[in-house]
Specification:
Blueprint: E1 6-13, H1 32-41, E2 45-50, E3 56-61, E4 64-66, E5 69-73, H2 79-86, E6 89-94, E7 101-109, H3 115-129, E8 146-156, E9 165-172
Antiparallel strand pairs: 1-9, 2-3, 2-6, 4-5, 5-8, 6-7, 7-8, 8-9
């Protein structure tokens, strides 16, 4: 399935309070490829949602990063999916806090993914998780259970106070 959307990514320094930036070091920005590689290579993704009563909820999940989107699956009966049904805004954080990668976005169910997308996602899942016992088939999501996070904001750094970078993401199409 060809993705006909145009991705517009605006990069800048993370917005932080005074004192968070190292004044003894030259400030730099990370490239979007840093986020792309980290999201693609991660094994566990911590997804933060909001319960209908406003309380926070966070849970780890396995997922795959494909075409600048995060795909994950699960039952609509889980707390995470119930929260997403009520409020689709999520934050996703990788496990490393020293070299942080955080993606915020809006989650939606992927109803009836195309055969091509199903094959691509199944291959990505198998490459990452087959040795751990999870390798879905391309048609695994034909009856639902597949979700995608469309990023709207990302933050990352490899050296806190020096390269804290913020990206705004917008899709057209």
């Amino acid at each position: 399935m060809a993705d006909n959307t145009t991705l517009e990514i605006t990069v800048g320094h993370a917005i932080v309070p005074d004192g968070y930036t190292r004044t003894d070091r030259e400030q730099r920005l990370l490239d979007w490829s840093h986020v792309d590689v980290r999201m693609r290579e991660a094994k566990n993704y911590w997804v933060a949602t909001t319960r209908p009563n406003g309380q926070p909820h966070v849970a780890p999940t396995w997922a795959v990063w494909h075409d600048n989107r995060l795909y994950f699956d699960g039952s609509p009966e889980t707390r995470r999916m119930q929260n997403i049904a009520a409020n689709p805004h999520v934050a996703v954080h990788l496990e490393d806090g020293d070299q942080a990668t955080i993606v915020e976005g809006i989650t939606r169910a992927v109803d009836h993914p195309s055969r091509e997308l199903g094959e691509q996602l199944a291959a990505l899942y198998a490459a990452k998780y087959a040795a751990l016992g999870y390798a879905p088939e391309p048609d695994s999501w034909d009856k639902g259970g597949l979700y995608v996070v469309e990023p709207t904001l990302a933050l990352a750094w490899t050296e806190f106070g020096v390269d804290m970078t913020r990206w705004r993401i917008r899709r057209d199409g």
